[in-house]
Every structure is written in C-alpha cells, then in structure tokens.
Design goal:
The longest helix has 10 residues. Helix content is about 20%, strand content about 20%. The strands form three sheets. Strands 1, 2, 3, 4, 7, 9, 11 and 13 form an eight-stranded antiparallel β-sheet that branches. A three-stranded antiparallel β-sheet has the order 5-10-8, with no helix packed on it. A two-stranded antiparallel sheet has the order 6-12. The chain is globular. The protein has a single domain, classed as Sandwich (Jelly Rolls), CATH 2.60.120.620. It has nine helices and 13 strands. Bound molecules: 2-oxoglutaric acid. 2-oxoglutaric acid (AKG) binds next to strand 7, strand 10 and strand 11.
Length: about 290
C-alpha cells in the first residue's frame, strides 16, 4: 500500500510554470513528487504489466522483440493506482495549471518502452481519444526511470494546443488514423524541418512530472538505450469539460454511460480536487 506520507505535497507550482504551460502547452515540473512515491509505484506497475490490462502495441503492428506496452484505467480496480491518481499532489498540480476550481480524474495509463524497443509513439493529441470537449484538460506524464531522448522521452510541439484543429486519433505506434474518426490528420512533424526543430524534449528524473494540454501535439522516439522507460500518465479534466461522444473512437464501459453535454461527475469520473469550501462552511448557510 502507498503510505499517506508519500502522497504529501512537495512544493507549490510557480507562476512561471503556469505561464510556460499556457504559452507552450507543456511544462516540465522538476521535483514535484516525492521520488519515494514514484519508486513505490514500481511494484504496482509490474503487477499491471503481468496482467491482461495491458496490450503490446508493437505486436499489434506486427513487431517482434522489445515491446512498447500500454494499458488504461488501472485506478478503477487497483488501490495503489487510485491513491496515486486521486490523492497524490497530481490533482492539485493539474488544478493550478488548468486554473480550475475543481478537477476530475479522466483516466490513467501505463506506458512502458523496453530497452531496444523500435516503436515510436506516433504524433497525436490526447483530445482525439477522449469522448470529451473543453479547454481544461491535461495529461501528467510521470517517469519511473531517468528518461531522455535516447530512451524514448516524449517530444512536444510548443504552441500546438492553441491550434483550433481537432485531430484524428491514430494507432499510436502507426500514424494511420483510426477508421471512421473525424477531423484532420496530424501533420508529419518529422518531415517538416521547422516543426521537427521546434519540438521540446527534456531529460526527466523520477519525482519530475511533464504536463501537457490535451490539444498539444506530441509523440516520442524509440527506446534506443539500454534502460527501461516506464511511465504512468494520468489525465485530468476541469470545470469546463463536458462529455462528447466522438465517432470511431473506442468507447469504454464508463463512457458508454456518459450523456453528451453533461460534466464529469462522481463516481465514474472521481472528483479529485476542489478549491470550493466544504458545503457546511459556505457563507450563505450562515446568513438568516
Ligand atoms: O509515453 C509515451 O510514449 C506517450 C505518452 C502519451 O502520449 C501520453 O501520455 O499522452
């Protein structure tokens, strides 16, 4: 079990970090989680990797050898993942960057590129995969290993979150858009020297979090190193987010039940942060 001390806040988010997120659609937050918390997620992550909750993305496109494995929604059945996504500093960090009073958990994901995995993460925006609309949506990418460009660190196209395009989701390790989805095809970033040259990538350590907006175009290289690249990605939505069913995008059991136009709400979409005072403490309750 993850102990409560590990979940405590480490440091506040600075105004500069908020400004960077708003300008670039991505920000590298150094040392915002207790590295011991990140280390404590190692065994739970291995348990997920050994379970049917993950898929070998490389094998899905005919690859053999070192894999790129991913899964989603682990918090729904696994208490350590629920603690990490709901009670760590991540929800308050998302609230600060999204400037949202409240924050709901959208999904979590494990993303593991083994040493020598040849699979790129193809460029995409997360919004294309969400049955949601709204501007207050972000993904927190948490490395469990020291990660840099050689081991498959994610690359981000700065400012792309301000483009109004809705991009079609793809097969993640293959750029082909999912059938029957609507919107524009993500441009071939690496074929355009200006776009490729603008990409932001960082060296991130356990305890760091890289957060991107759901409209930010991002992808990542193969893992050409000899170290594993294990990450947990947790996605959050704020006050302006509403359900919106999108054609062609896979629908989870919880999304099946969601009604277009309604906000995220407990219990399927857990409220994980609220800056509003508790109900009993509202001033209006005290008058008259
Ligand atoms: O880990 C990766 O390679 C991709 C991560 C990603 O696309 C995400 O977390 O939204």
């Amino acid at each position: 079990m993850i102990s409560p001390e590990l979940l405590q806040d480490v440091r506040p988010i600075t105004d500069d970090e908020v400004a960077t997120f708003e300008r670039d659609g991505v920000v590298h937050l150094i040392g915002v989680l207790n590295p011991a918390l990140v280390a404590a997620m190692s065994d739970p992550l291995e348990a997920v990797l050994a379970s049917p909750e993950v898929a070998d993305l490389g094998a899905m496109v005919g690859g053999t050898g070192p894999t790129f494995v991913a899964g989603t929604d682990h918090f729904r059945t696994r208490p350590d993942f629920a603690a990490f996504a709901c009670r760590s500093p991540l929800p308050a960090i998302a609230a600060a960057l999204l400037r949202s009073q409240s924050v709901w958990l959208v999904e979590d994901s494990v993303l593991v590129k083994e040493p020598g995995s040849p699979h790129r993460t193809q460029f995409h925006t997360d919004l294309g995969y969400f049955h949601l609309r709204g501007a207050q949506l972000c993904t927190t990418w948490v490395p469990l290993d020291a990660t840099g460009p050689a081991s498959g660190m994610v690359q981000y196209l700065p400012g792309s979150h301000r483009l109004s395009h809705d991009y079609r989701p793809n097969h993640f390790v293959d750029p082909t858009p999912l059938p029957d989805t609507v919107g524009e095809v993500v441009p071939d970033i690496l074929a355009d020297p200006a776009l490729a040259g603008a990409l932001i990538t960082v060296e991130a350590l356990p305890g760091d979090v890289v957060i991107h907006h759901a409209r930010t175009i991002h992808g990542g290289p193969a893992n050409s190193s000899t170290t594993r690249r294990r990450a947990i990605s947790v996605r959050y939505g704020g006050d302006d987010v509403r359900h919106l069913r999108k054609p062609g995008v896979p629908v989870s059991r919880w999304q099946q039940a969601a009604v277009d136009g309604t906000p995220l709400a407990d219990p399927d979409w857990p409220l994980v942060h609220s800056a509003r005072p508790p109900r009993a403490a509202r001033a209006s309750d005290l008058s008259g």
